Amino acid sequence: MSDILDDDLELRVGTLQLTSDNANADNRVDNASDSKSSNKNKNQLNANPSVLSGADSLSSSTSSFADARAEGISNPEPRNAAEPERTVYPRYDVPFNRENIKDFFTFRKGVVENAIQECITALLFPEDGEYLGSWLLTEITLWDNEKERIVLLTSRLVMTIKYDFIAMKQLDFKKTYLDDLDTIVIGELVYPPSSLVPRLNGIATGVTTVVKDCVIDRLCRRPTANEEAKLFDPKYFEPRERNLRGVRLMWNKGEPLSLKTAWNPFSQDVPFITFASHPIFWHKDGTLEERAMYDMETFAQKLQRAIEAMTSSACCIHHSPIVIQSYLGVTSLLHNKISLGFFKVRGKFSF
After folding, report:
1. Using 50, 70 and 90 to split pLDDT, how confident is the model at 347?
2. Strand ranges (DSSP E) for the chain?
């Protein structure tokens, strides 16, 4: 009987010892995960939104950034090949209208496709890497000017091409290697808090709307009573933000722009490039997949995958506001309102 009790006690003691070891191991794992989580949160809180966005200061930006690469590593989930692409971020102000968009030479059937094929044949070489895609996007310069650009993406570089869609010939191109990128920011295009651009944009839009309603529409037809009441709606003159998403590719390693670069409108040393969707994206017939050629979101997704596929890349991808450092913006407002950066028909002239 005593032998049986001794065996039973030994068994119980061994069981308790094993349980204690497991608990200690679990505690060590929990403490390690908590430490990693706290370190990650500290790193995110220490991130400087103004540096990552290419601005000197921005009080309205959020301080929390979602690093897509880090999330993909910590929470790996199998990608469904049949999963559709994300829908485009909703935009409040659709650029131009259906009639004006037809003045763009790129709106004509086959023009963009032929231009892209010409650029691929003439400018891409085997050493440039595997071809991943091509787009017609809007480049937003340091001085907030919108310009029409063909963008080619390979496994090694992003090529930005200035193309004459009237003469159908390439004018200039620039290569940006993915290895040189240190930060990619995807988010809403915003102005600094002290910028006058939103106010000037609201005044210009209000004046344009009122003149159109007072002069053009009244000459064509008699307005109704409801239209009379809305004629001088003060909402027409409210400040208007960009209300547009973009992607910014940066290789400045967190350093601010020098005064020589920041105040030179002809500088070619700007260490970042910003893209947004082309205006045709909102007016082209077809599904989202058929309009993907003009969609910044599709370009950003493929760019992110190309960065993730490069084991040697140290580039971080952040989702946060992209600051456009324009404070007065009179010239850019005029430039963008009359679409000087796009090839289109302008009355009896085309340029």
Report:
1. confident
2. 131-140, 146-154, 157-164, 169-177, 183-190, 245-250, 272-277, 316-319, 322-323, 345-346, 349-350
